[in-house]
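User: My instructor asked us to take a sequence, write out its structure as tokens, and then describe one feature of it. I'm not sure where to start. Here is the sequence I was given:
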Amino acid sequence: MELLDRIKSPADLRDLDPLDLERLTDEIRALLIARVTHNGGHLGPNLGVVELTIALHRVFDSPRDSLVWDTGHQAYVHKLLTGRVADFATLRTRGGMSGYPCRAESEHDLVENSHASTALSYADGLAHARQSRGDPGHVVAVIGDGALTGGMSWEAVNNIAAAPGRPLIVVINDNARSYAPTVGGLAQHLAALRTSRGYEEFLERAKDTLQGVPAVGDTVYRALHGAKKGLKDFLAPQALYEDLGLKYLGPVDGHDREAVEAVLLRARAFGGSVVVHCITEKGRGYAPAEEDTRDRFHAVRAAPSPSPAATPGQPTAAAPTWTAAFGEELLRQAERRPDVVALTAAMLEPAGLLPLQRALPARVVDVGIAEQHAVTCAAGMAMGGLHPVVCVYATFLNRAFDQVLMDVALHRLPVTFVLDRAGITGDDGASHNGIWDLATLQAVPGLRIAAPRDRAALRRQLDEALGTEDAPTLLRYPKGALPPDLLARERIAGPDGTTSVDVLARTGEDVLLVAVGVLGGPCVAAAHRLQEQGIGCTVVDPGWVKPVPRALVELAAGFDVVVTAEDGLRTGGVGETLAAALRDARTVPRELRTLGVPSGFLEHASRAELLAECGLSSDRIAEQVTQAVAEATGRPPLKGAV
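Assistant: Let's start with the prediction itself. The structure tokens for your sequence are:
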């Protein structure tokens, strides 16, 4: 890595000759493969933008020129070229380099929100500000073809086209994929452009030939250029951008660095808004990624640690995941219920829908990166007699709150939302933690929310959700492996006959510990630790946490100390909602404590590390329950208490 180690800033790239630049691309790819396959992260997208990123930093002068990366999946090469090679070994580890652009790391990083389709709006605002201040710098937005399926991108394009004189360059990194092959009319349009490059080559050859013919050549060439425009509009409607008033350059081979630099120089010199269309190959230079037909190694998990229980020389079986379990359960439901249809926003496999898509392809709809459309489309499906299941990551449902509220809940439609990666996700960083749903969705009238603790609960609650015909429902579960099934010791039914509470452990009546979803296991472990300290604890799982089950309110009335634990925001979450219900019932306990995620944005670290930091590990839960009992009784904790 000798050459890469010498790159301390983008300016160093401009001193390299073509042979050095070739060596540099090889070194970058080697480092990406070595480090990302070890730490986990987004390998395929970054292998695909090595030459493009080098060209961007050779043509533009960051940070004087502003580079905005949509999603940040493709920004590892950018990090390496902006003086962060030495820190790359710490990628996605606690206290180390973020897996996305990070403003705290470098002045070259502007946007660290990793939600797709936002870059053009950021860039439009930046370019407007630069123009109004008379700042001569350029703004460059790098956006993938998948992100262009998001409606927010086209809202931005509409505004960018209205001010064509702004120094704004839109680079489309077109690899025909987001997580998987990009879907929709725009994808078809870009595919047509990719297959029409022969016309560009034909035109260039004709230009070289005809310009050698005195007088006649230039006239014929101009006529041919006009004919070419008509041919391309017929076979590949690139007029999409030009009809909006945006200059269009490309398509260009995104792995031909010299060609990319040439087209970027033309775009920079134009002085207005330009779209540069680059064709790249996701996973370029790494055979396993190139041969992976699913997602070209879009995301790679960290290398697993050796299991001490594994037999030497024998492969260890991967633990089943929440995502896989949900996919199997949904397929089981769909096979017996013809009204069930699944929707997702460009996350077919990450959301667990691949089994259903393979078995019943007509029952899966991928809308592209368009969560708002997915939710309202689901509302229309429900009006038409189907039971749609909207499958997204928890953090991405934030983008469609209005649609959940006004298009689904207002009409009391039977739409089921399934939120993968709910709660703390960990090493993906602040924007991927799904910690807001339990708090924000409390405001949605009629919505019922379940937090399954294990696979058995997931199966039961999915069945209950799909059986709901007069209201929306939602299931949430975290990233990662399924915990062992945690059987209920007993089930306490509510007075309405429909809601119930599972008792997971009962070591005494000093404390009622309410465990939300996957915190059931840690809460049971905490109860056993508390028993050693002489504190009796009843651990319950309400299963359905919105609305608050009446059975839970009645049970809590018999305890002096009630503690709730949830892997979502403490403010406005399940604990505070239960507290309000207890106040309404005039049965407020002497001590009521809510454990959860504090308000704020969590830095990237492992899920286990962040749970412990937020007081949600079994040890920390036991410690806080001990403190609550001490405050309620007025006596200090026993000597040696946790």
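For the description part of your assignment, you could build on this observation: DSSP finds 25 helices and 18 strands in the chain. Try explaining in your own words what that tells you about the chain.
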